[in-house]
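Task card 7
Instruction: Convert sequence to structure tokens.
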Amino acid sequence: MGAIVTSEFNGMRLTLAREIQNISSPKLAEKIGVTKQTVSQYENGLIKPSADKVLAISQELKFPPKFFFEGSSDNFSPGVAYCRATTTTTRAVKLRQTNIDVLKSYIYDFFAEYIEYPSTEQLIDCMKSVAECSDMELIAKKIREKLDLSDRPIRNMSYLLQNLGIVVTSFSENVGHLDAISHIPVLANNGESKRFYFTTYNTDKTTPARLNFTLAHELGHWILGHIVSDVKSQADAEYRSNESDANQFASAFLLPKEAFLKDLQYPTVLNEYLRLKEKWHVSIAMMIRRAYMLEVLSPSQYQYLFRQLGSRGWRTFEPGDMVEVPTASLFSASVKILDDNGIIEKGNLLKYLNENCFTAQQKTFEDLMGLEQHTLDPAMSGSFSRVEFKPN
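Output:
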């Protein structure tokens, strides 16, 4: 779906860019010298901004003027994002990340012309296979069987989701209770629409072991059909029920009952869970909760182990945790594949992205794809060689 330029100002592009930059309508209005009602009318296609206002919008939102004249007002949708955003800050982060994923959808769609990514067929098949089941233990077991995992530990949930056709991305925001967001961006062009399954996780204040649970939790939401639900219309009880189901699924999926209990020889000894962490790639706290839910621990034993976690300082950082959580690497890996195989060299990629995705600055594309600065520096035309400077 190429970056088709029209003569009409695209109000939805303005909303997209504004929310990505986390600038409110009144704030943007103040910056460009119009009323907030005028910004609203720009966004809803009721009036068109003058040339000088387009330039002002471009400068404030850090997108080239051409960006706002591409596509049509109905050519994309971020989809409904499944996450609980109860504060102004978390709602702003949710809007920002879902709109960023819209831009990433354009890039992913372009890369898919050259790279054969996994399809979502297996994910949809998994969803259908458990549609009539309500027991989370049984659902997790069936999904493991569908994916030929048997009782093996899962080292990297990010790879597993990507192999199911889910585009896994990441962000870093210091905001409470926003571990991940899942949604289905839709791109439309000439009557054709494409849906993309996205899960984006927060790298702030987490560890690889906890991230495994977060992504298994999101997989639970996908498998159980929660992603297409409109969270805003859900009663608190329904939302809590969905969260509980996803938690139970994640626990049973990452720690299959029989295999985990076979390994757990001394359930009341904290160091036993430290030993098992290396094998199962989940947090100690999560294993203790799983043991309690499987009735291996009594309530008093469960509480005692968590007091020990606190006294050792393991509630925030456990032994074996990495200091930094790896960011999602799908896009950077894709760039390398295209470059290594001589399909599109990195020095020429910016031109292709601007022509086939949307118009943006080099830094914007590098940030979206998790690339180091200057990765997409344009290739030098012609050849040159270095010569030694010799003063007279």
